[in-house]
Amino acid sequence: MVKRLRKTKKNQKYNYNRNRKRLNKKLRSTGVIKCKEISKALDKSQPLSANIRQMGLAFNVNKALPVPNAKQERLQLTRYVNGFLEEDNCDEDALRPSKTGKTRKPPKVFVRQQLEKDANEYVESRFRLPKGQVQYVTNFIDAHGFNYKAMSRDRRNYNQDTWRQLRQKVRKFLSIPEQCTPYLERKGWLDCDMNDPNDARWKEYCTDDEEC
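Request: output the structure for the sequence above.
Response:
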């Protein structure tokens, strides 16, 4: 018994290098919330789980969208057959309708509605090609036009890209207006229709339907 007390006393030493006040503050804090809608409607006097529930969001995704369990489904079916439905319905207090016949709505449901609205809005792609890749593609267009087979045979094709890979890079470059507009303006092709098959400048010599 004496050895155990000495061993316990030896291990229980005060750590002077740790700030207990800062540690407790860190444990109680919710961390940095980057979402503006949630941070504005957050009530610091309540726990994070209660705040998320009041906003109409799911705090635990595993409980909100559980993985189907065959065993639980069989147990629920057995309880349904045996008539134990009243006990199961008592657990669904949150979904129980009120006296007026309507289900309860979270008090801060506007946060969920704003997040849904932001998610449904169209966001332009921010993808941009590196400057070296732009120079790599424009040099091939200046030398060979849109003849991808000739591009693949060029000695400057140090990556040994196939003609399909080069075609993908050229089409990706032309789909980014911020990068292709200065090049087309310099070439004098800004007012031309890229989808015009009669214009020889935009003719692609290699497609999936024909051999190059």
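The two ends are 89 Å apart (CA to CA).
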